[in-house]
Design a protein that fits this description.
Helices cover 36% and strands 22% of the residues. By secondary structure, the chain is α/β, with parallel strands linked by helices. The protein folds into three domains: 12-46 and 63-191, Cytidine Deaminase, domain 2, CATH 3.40.140; 215-274; 306-342, no CATH class. Strands 7-6-5-4-2-3-1-8 form an eight-stranded mixed beta sheet. A hairpin with a 2-residue loop joins strand 6 (158-168) and strand 7. The longest helix has 62 residues, at 244-305. The chain is elongated, with a radius of gyration of 44 Å. The N and C termini lie far apart (124 Å).
């Protein structure tokens, strides 16, 4: 549909952040220029209520018309460039299916990607817009998004410039494109969210007797998180609205008791670990002292076998009897200065 410039105000154009990111990624990943179809929906927002006035000229004015909104949710593009039109700019479907089928009926426009070029529609894109508008027969102006990706010489910075156009009469007129879910201005959209499908109905009654094993497993899973809170009380929270606050308080208290019990167990385990570490350290020290004594004895044995005599003038020391060394003399080992005299 091609509107004249004075027919109505420009529609509100919007695209989701995920759809825009996917579109820019497709344009950047292409080996060259590419194009494709844009899918979404067009809807008329309810008109604002007419203002009441005592003046005749304002009362006789026509009521405001409903605003048209075009929202882009996805895109479709083939691997080879210029897949939507022939060299003359005439539209041909990407597949052998009818463009007026259900899948192509959601098309709201098309996009084109040209690297490092000005954001101005070409003659071929204008011809494609006219041909596509006649083929799709939409009840709203055709949307066209022109993308121009570019990169720095060392490919450290990638830029994506884009601009939206609407086919009005025989011209592609620039229009403002709003990115949904990006920026603080769209924070209110989350408060007005309405799901397309209702929430499933959750069973609020206890499980039958034939499913005792399932109830036991679920109870064990609940007991691991909440102390003293059965699966029946948890189903009661999901079922009725009465008494939910009290049940939630009890569940929170049970979770605190569970955390306190876990904290005590961790504290006891830490004490046991410290005791085990202390015991291990004492065993290591005892082993080291025994090893040092054995090392000294081995040195004495080595000196005795070499025919050496240890002589010292100190009065304090450790006397090792020759009975420890069969067939040898008494050896005096002193902790102060030592003098070794070889026997001839």
């Amino acid at each position: 549909m091609a509107l004249r410039d004075g027919d109505a105000a420009l529609p509100n154009l919007s695209i989701s952040g995920a759809a825009l990111a996917a579109l820019l990624h497709r344009c950047a990943a292409a080996t060259g220029d590419c194009d494709g179809l844009l899918f979404g929906r067009a809807s008329h927002l309810p008109a604002p209520p007419a203002s009441l006035s005592d003046y005749d000229d304002l009362a006789a004015a026509a009521p405001p018309a409903p605003a048209l909104t075009i929202s882009v949710s996805s895109h479709c593009s083939l691997s080879h460039p210029s897949s939507l039109s022939d060299p003359l700019g005439r539209f041909h479907p990407p597949s052998s299916s009818d463009p007026s089928s259900a899948s192509a009926g959601a098309a709201v426009g098309f996009f084109s990607s040209r690297r490092r070029t000005a954001l101005r529609p070409s003659m071929r894109e204008l011809a494609l817009a006219h041909s596509l508008s006649k083929t799709l027969i939409t009840a709203h102006p055709l949307l066209f998004i022109l993308v121009s990706p570019s990169a720095s010489p060392n490919f450290s910075t990638h830029s994506y410039d884009y601009r939206a156009f609407l086919l009005l009469a025989s011209r592609l007129v620039p229009a403002s494109l709003t990115v949904v879910n990006v920026g603080p201005g769209f924070r209110d959209q989350y408060h007005a969210f309405s799901p397309q499908s209702p929430m499933p109905c959750l069973p609020s009654s206890p499980a039958p007797a034939g499913h005792a094993h399932t109830t036991l497993g679920e109870s064990k899973a609940v007991d691991e998180m909440v102390d003293g809170f059965g699966i029946g009380r948890l189903q009661g929270i999901l079922g009725s609205a009465a008494g939910q606050a009290a049940e939630m308080d009890d569940m929170y208290a049970g979770m605190l008791r569970k955390l306190e019990k876990l904290a005590r167990e961790v504290e006891k385990s830490n004490i046991r670990v410290l005791e085990q570490v202390s015991k291990s350290v004492s065993q290591i020290l005892q082993f080291l002292s025994t090893s040092m004594l054995l090392l000294l004895i081995s040195k004495l044995i080595l000196l005795q076998n070499c025919g050496c005599r240890i002589v010292n003038g100190s009065t304090e020391g450790l006397r090792i009897c020759s009975s420890f060394f069969p067939g040898s003399r008494i050896v005096d080992f002193w902790s102060t200065q030592e003098t070794y005299t070889h026997l001839d």
